[in-house]
Amino acid sequence: MQATATVLVYSDNARTREEVRLATGRRPATDVPEVEFVECATLHAVLKEMQQGGIDVCVLDGEAVPAGGMGVCRQLKDEIFRCPPVLLLMGRPQDAWLATWSRADAAVTLPVEPVEFADALAGLLRSRLAVQA
Question: Which of 22, 59, 117, 118 is most buried (most C-beta within 10 Å)?
Answer without folding.
Answer: 59
